[in-house]
Amino acid sequence: MMMMKVKVSELVLVLSWVLCVSAEVKHQDIQIVGCSDSDGEVMYGLDGEELWYADFVNKKGVEPQPSFIDHMSYEEGTYEGAVADQQTCKQNVGTFRKALNNPPVKLVPPSSPIIYSRDDVELDQQNTLICHVTGFYPAPVKIHWTKNGQNVTEGTSINVPFLNKDTFFRQTSRLEFTPQLGDVYSCTVDHPALDQPLTRIWDVEVQQPSVGPAVFCGLGLTVGLLGVAAGTFFLIKGNECS
């Protein structure tokens, strides 16, 4: 099945299709080609994961594939094809704008960002903070990080916008960090549909082992045993007196 959707103002062409590999298993294979006056995107994905995208700043293709899948390499010339797609995309933007008398862009703001750590927090052990935002149009959003009130750029990364089934976008940024008790991090998201940026705070907390139930259980057991011992003592004394 192949679906074609057109959004005139920013995203010109979106192609997506579902491949049924067996009677029981389905996989979703998606290609996104989008452009605006200042931004562009070409991305291939599978089951919600990016397999390849064009980095137009560094002029190369990137394969940010997760470690739990078999790595797939794209053939030589894929990036050059993406550059050609952008040229066609921008030509189509101009054609649509002229034909539709330059319609206004419909702005949809992103959801409040969600921030969480990739792994359980252990002090002095390297980890990754993840900031996720979804439901916005057009793409992309801008995401930046702070640590204890200071802007952080080292160790940060952001994926290309990913298209949801509702034709809005989601995007994720990551920050590599080493937890130290008391450190406070923030993730701030900006988008043209927002009156002011959205910020979510995350501070380093280490879950300590819970000792309360064990202590109370131990005290209860001790009191219970003392009660049994006292009862036995008085029972023996009563038998001796009779």
From TrEMBL:
The keyword Calcium does not apply. The chain crosses the membrane at residues 213-236. Gene3D superfamilies: Class II Histocompatibility Antigen, M Beta Chain, Chain B, domain 1, Immunoglobulins. Residues 1-23 form the signal peptide. It is a single-pass type I membrane protein. GO terms for cellular component: MHC class II protein complex. Keywords: Adaptive immunity, Disulfide bond, Glycoprotein, Immunity, Immunoglobulin domain, Membrane, MHC II, Signal, Transmembrane, Transmembrane helix. It comes from the Eukaryota. Its main location: membrane. SUPFAM superfamilies: Immunoglobulin (SSF48726), MHC antigen-recognition domain (SSF54452). It holds the Pfam family C1-set. It is found in: Membrane. InterPro entries: Ig-like_dom (IPR007110), Ig-like_dom_sf (IPR036179), Ig-like_fold (IPR013783), Ig/MHC_CS (IPR003006), Ig_C1-set (IPR003597), MHC/Immunoglobulin (IPR050160), MHC_I/II-like_Ag-recog (IPR011162), MHC_II_a/b_N (IPR014745). The keyword Transmembrane helix applies. Residues 103-199 form the Ig-like domain. PANTHER family: HLA CLASS II HISTOCOMPATIBILITY ANTIGEN, DR ALPHA CHAIN (PTHR19944:SF86), MHC CLASS II-RELATED (PTHR19944). Belongs to the MHC class II family. This is Mamu class II histocompatibility antigen, DR alpha chain-like.
